[in-house]
Write a structure and sequence with these properties.
By secondary structure, this protein is of the alpha/beta class. It contains 25 helices and nine strands. Helix 6 (about 180-185) crosses helix 11 (about 270-290). The longest helix is centred in the N-terminal third of the chain and has 45 residues, at about 130-170.
Length: about 650
Amino acid sequence: MAQSNIKVAVQKFGNFLSSMVMPNISAFIAWGLITALFIPTGFIPNESLAKMVSPMVTYLLPILIGYSGGKLVHDQRGAVVGAIATMGVIAGADIPMFLGAMVIGPLGGWVIKKFDQMIEGKVRAGFEMLVNNFSAGILGAILAILAFLGVGPVIDAFTGWLVAGVDWLVGTGLLPLTSILIEPAKVLFLNNAINHGVLSPIGVEQVKETGQSILFLLEANPGPGIGVLLAYMFFGKGAAKKSAPGAGIIHFFGGIHEIYFPYILMRPMLFLAVILGGMSGVFTLVLLGGGLFAPSSPGSILAITAVTPHHAGAYIANFAGVIVAAAVSFIVSAFILKTGKQGEEDIEAATKKMQEMKGKKSSVAGAITADQGAMPDNVSKIIFACDAGMGSSAMGASLLRKKVKEAGMDISVTNMAISNLPGDAQIVITQEELTPRAKNKVPNAYHISVDNFLSSPEYDKLISELKFPANSQLHEIVEDADDNGTENHEQDKETAHEDDLLRPENVFLNKEFTNKDEAIRFAGRALVDAGYVEESYIEAMIERDNMTSTYMGNDVAIPHGTEEAKKAVIKSGFTVLQVPNGVDFDGQKVRLIFGIAGKDGTHLEILSGIAVTCSEMENIEKMAGAKTAQEIIDIIGKK
């Protein structure tokens, strides 16, 4: 238990540090780009424009980190005080204060948070703005002075020790051993904190002296990760094998290292592969004199190329470091995957585990899982997307827009090209072959695939889910029955009558049940007595509810049998149980229970009527208060 608590604490700490850096990666990229272009050894040396390099690394980047750290603790007021305090560590040191900003920024947010808690409810009306502004200014100034006198010099001295330690590691040939810590730390989401909080400040000092630093490549080298993904491409199984090529492209060219973490979490032995790959890459870089003149943000081969010193020796050394790391990681990973006894890897479970460790949803999770996504709450917009956004998607949007209007919902339906999908898209509808592209563009949206924009049952299903969210399960029942009854559907439909599907004697009023099992068994027994199903169907109804609750929302449950139990259905039929005082279904109160037996699709029409009827609470109240069986049948029949 203690070990688990330590692991959780480390993961939370790593996520907190990374959350200070990640919002500001674009600023690191801007600094790296200006450095790569305009310094004396850059692509287009420009003495005037190069003057921006030093102020950006000295002031801009640390202040942004301190601002983000304060905001994490106490929103905007914490951000402002954190930024003010960060100026103290900047002025009190002679090196870029990334690490100092990570300390003083959150501290500033914490101090102003505690102050606000102390005065909460004690400030007289009309003086709030005065107190807020002066408190933030005074406390920020005090923290800046303390940081200048204490924190800055301490961090400066600590960084000096780290520089000396790195020089010693390089001199003794032990620098490759840092991969033993760095590679596992990545998976704990300490990578950005290590890279930008520790390695980057030391690297900047080395660049001042030698023009480049190997430290910028210790964490950013994409070699170990691409080696693991290549091994999965050749020797993996199932979804992991299929998703590895796309993940490899995102990792190697996009620089998003977290995309390969789930592949390691599936096979923890692969930690050995990335450690040995990292060590081999660092050894190669030391041997050939590799290094960068600015941090590589993100850690992609393109970014590394951009900040490699512009001479052949540096390019050869850096590319060799990446290639060797990838080769060693690939060989070790391939051996582990080939000799392991585990079955098909569960990439989705591993991705969920990674997101739990990260503490939030991964932006790249959709690229390595086939998850449709979760139906969002409070849907306000549905987007049809196609390649150009002008033809098929426009027609599909017009059809669904009409259905939405008829359903009385205030939801806009628009169409556009996939390339123009906004990051906050809620529901995206695409043709099947275009869905992967849409998922890559907006992985957090709820995605729906259709065969034909002009005619798709997905439209009605979506409308029903939006009006009555739990109806998705009911639609699955409809679809299952439809699939199994395609051949005889029309013929049987002619002989089946609604009166035979739901008869007054199968509607039971004012029932009382102690638990859901008792209620489900009663519904099953009624189906048996009515001649709809065989005796075995009752237990199948219990089994089905245990698999996934048959509670549908709106005080309604629809117990039915399992897939295997369809052979026990003699003919389609329903039974209705009215439970005015309700019965508990897994913590939910149910007042209406519809027992269902479906065969050859003959029950689809009345089932659809039940779905529409139960989507409105007004109808639920009427049926729950009905005095006769015929009243309930009539309410369903009117829909």
